[in-house]
C-alpha cells in the first residue's frame, strides 16, 4: 500500500526568505499547533531543540528550515509546500483534525486530509525534523524525516532510508538501486551508450523543477547525458520522492497521489 505521507517540492531549488518571522502565539508550547490554532503569515514553530523551524512565509509558502547549532541561522530549506506566490496563506489545525492551508479568500490550497481523526489533534515540529499530526499519542499524518524523502526541486537526490530502517536507496554513481538490507530489489544500471561515461561515479539523480526525476551521467565528450527518467515531466514543483517502509520508491504529488514507483513504473502524468 502506498504511504499516506505528503511532502512537497521547493520550486526551482530555492526558497526565498521573506520578512522576519515571529513565534506563533496561538500555540503553546512553541513547537506545536493546537486544535483551533492558526499559524499566520510571518509566524513560525520551532522544534524543542531549536534545530528546526517551520515558517509560514509571507509569500504564502510553508517551509521547514534547518537552523544549525544554536538555531542562529535558519536558512537551509528541507521541506516545503511549494506554495510561494500566494501571499497571505495561513495554516490552521481545524477542530475536526484536519491541517489546512487557506488562502486569504478562504480557499483550501492544501490539506492533510485528516478530518474526522479527532477534535483535539496536535500538530508538532519534532527534533528529528518530522512534522506530525497526532490524535492523542497516535500519529495520523507525518512528513517523515529528511533521510526518507527528497523534494527540493532542482537539487540532486541523496541516499534515502525507509522510516523502519530496513530499506535503502543508493543514488547514482554509475548505477542506482533499492536494497533490502544487502539484497538489491530494484535498480537501474548505466546503459551501453557510446555517449555515456559509465566508468565515472559522478552521476546524479535530480528532481527537476518540471516534476521529472532524471539520472544524469557524465558524457564521454564532456557535459552530461540523461540516461533515465521517471516520465513525470509536467507535474511541476509539487512532486516529492519517498522510500516507503515496503521498499517501494515512490514519486507523489501535492495530494499524495502516486505518479511513479519503482514497483509499477509510470502511474500517472499530469499535463
Report on this model:
The model is unreliable at 1-20 (pLDDT under 50). This protein has strands at 22-23, 32-34, 38-39, 43-46, 52-56, 62-66, 76-80, 90-93, 99-102, 108-111, 122-125, 131-135, 138-142, 149-150, 160-161, 167-170, 175-180, 183-189, 204-207, 213-218, 224-229, 240-243, 249-252, 258-261, 265-266. 0% of the residues lie in helices and 38% in strands.
Short note summarizing the structure:
The protein is mainly beta and 271 residues long. 0% of the residues lie in helices and 38% in strands.
Layout of helices and strands:
Blueprint: E1 22-23, E2 32-34, E3 38-39, E4 43-46, E5 52-56, E6 62-66, E7 76-80, E8 90-93, E9 99-102, E10 108-111, E11 122-125, E12 131-135, E13 138-142, E14 149-150, E15 160-161, E16 167-170, E17 175-180, E18 183-189, E19 204-207, E20 213-218, E21 224-229, E22 240-243, E23 249-252, E24 258-261, E25 265-266
Parallel strand pairs: 1-4
Antiparallel strand pairs: 2-11, 3-8, 4-5, 5-6, 6-7, 8-9, 9-10, 11-12, 12-13, 14-22, 15-16, 16-17, 17-18, 19-20, 20-21, 22-23, 23-24, 24-25
Amino acid at each position: 500500500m502506498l504511504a499516506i505521507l505528503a511532502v512537497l517540492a521547493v520550486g526551482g531549488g530555492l526558497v526565498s526568505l521573506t520578512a522576519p518571522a515571529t513565534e506563533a502565539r496561538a500555540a503553546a508550547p512553541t513547537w506545536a499547533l493546537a486544535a483551533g490554532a492558526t499559524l499566520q503569515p510571518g509566524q513560525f514553530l520551532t522544534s524543542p531543540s531549536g534545530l528546526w523551524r517551520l515558517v509560514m512565509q509571507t509569500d504564502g509558502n510553508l517551509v521547514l528550515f534547518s537552523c544549525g547549532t544554536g538555531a542562529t541561522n535558519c536558512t537551509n530549506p528541507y521541506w516545503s509546500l511549494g506554495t510561494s506566490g500566494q501571499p497571505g496563506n495561513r495554516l490552521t489545525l481545524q477542530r475536526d483534525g484536519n491541517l489546512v492551508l487557506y488562502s486569504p479568500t478562504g480557499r483550501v490550497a492544501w490539506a492533510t486530509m485528516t478530518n474526522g481523526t479527532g477534535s483535539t489533534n496536535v500538530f508538532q515540529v519534532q527534533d528529528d525534523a518530522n512534522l506530525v499530526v497526532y490524535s492523542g499519542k497516535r500519529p495520523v499524518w507525518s512528513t517523515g524525516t529528511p533521510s526518507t524523502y527528497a523534494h527540493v526541486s532542482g537539487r540532486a537526490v541523496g541516499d534515502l532510508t525507509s522510516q523502519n530502517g530496513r530499506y535503502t536507496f543508493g543514488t547514482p554513481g554509475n548505477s542506482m538501486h533499492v536494497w533490502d538490507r544487502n539484497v538489491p530489489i530494484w535498480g537501474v544500471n548505466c546503459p551501453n551508450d557510446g555517449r555515456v561515461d559509465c566508468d565515472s561515479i559522478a552521476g546524479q539523480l535530480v528532481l527537476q523543477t518540471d516534476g521529472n526525476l532524471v539520472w544524469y551521467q557524465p558524457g564521454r565528450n564532456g557535459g552530461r547525458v540523461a540516461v533515465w527518467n521517471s516520465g513525470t515531466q509536467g507535474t511541476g514543483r509539487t512532486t516529492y520522492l519517498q522510500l516507503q517502509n515496503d521498499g517501494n520508491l515512490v514519486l507523489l504529488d501535492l495530494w499524495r497521489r502516486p505518479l511513479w514507483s519503482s514497483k509499477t513504473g509510470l502511474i500517472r502524468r499530469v499535463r
